[in-house]
Design goal:
Length: 344
Amino acid sequence: MKVRVGVNGFGTIGKRVADAVARQPDMELIGVAKTRPGFEARRAVERGYPIYIAGGGSPEKFAAAGLPVAGRLADLLGKVDVVVDATPEDVGRENRALYQAAGIRAVFQGGKEPDVAEASFNALANYETGRGKRSLRVVSCNTTGLARAAAVLLPRWGVARWDVTLVRRAADPGESKRGPVDGIMPTMEMPSHHGPDVRTIYPDLPIATAAVVVPTTLMHVHVNHVRLAHPPSGTAELLGAFRSTPRFHVFAGWEGVDGTPQVMEFARDRAGHGNRSTSDMPENVLWERGARLDGSDAYFFQAIHQESVVVPENIDAIRAMFDLAKDKDASIALTDRTLGIAPG
Ligand code: NAD
């Protein structure tokens, strides 16, 4: 029996999660909920995803656009076992009561406050915590990137102290109303909220984060300095651990990948190869040249594709909630195989 899934909010994250759900052998995408017609609604129709109207949207507007609708959000909620809420940050919290009233489970996105769900979730870091839960929060893109890195470092070498500067993208590529279009904007809150957010998964992790926003849409970049409690033998061992972990991609020096433009060009080149249908880069990206071990101090850059990094995590969150896989490795392997993400 397949788990029946609905996606509420069909924007940057929602449309990607819907596509990913549609590829899972143990899940069925029942429909997606949208407030307004638009190019993304047209795409849903073209892909055969039934559209349900959410948030006071008007059926007349969908009819005028020639887009068929299958009902209202309440109808969708009546047909699914779980909803992935990918609405804007403040809407998800309001929606929580709807999901509870419908008696269904819910996966929320990390922009929300942690208490929107029973637990915060990252597949590599705390898959077991998600088992059987009625609601989970897949942590934000930056927190997902940090939690994955912590899942590599902590069990092997322990972390005595971790300082991260997050260089954050200003907007997603499809957004034209956000900025800055020039300048570097420090996030004055210090430490930034990302450190505490990682601690919703690793409560004792001694991590401190600071952030600046820069005028780019491609990816975030994290500048990491980690003091390891029991360091590995050298940089090669450090890099080997990242290389052998799922959802990490390490570029070799000879590949000539100097920064995020080449990373995303690589992702575009890879689209359509094997199961990889998108030009996304859901892996944490590291550079061989951009990692170094100096005594107990590990330094490494990692780039995070904000639009896609959380997509496989949403799939694993559903699998954990419904106990569909024997363990995290089995869930991650199935998700990654269906999405064309190469094993670590
Ligand atoms: P988005 O604006 O691209 O998409 C949100 C969609 O929800 C839009 O299509 C919007 O029309 C729709 N919507 C608005 N009100 C609604 C309602 N009441 N009911 C149903 N749909 C409604 O936003 P996004 O970037 O996809 O972000 C969604 C969530 O994912 C947010 O919580 C965000 O913090 C989180 N997130 C975003 C990113 C990112 O980089 N874009 C990364 C990780 C997590």
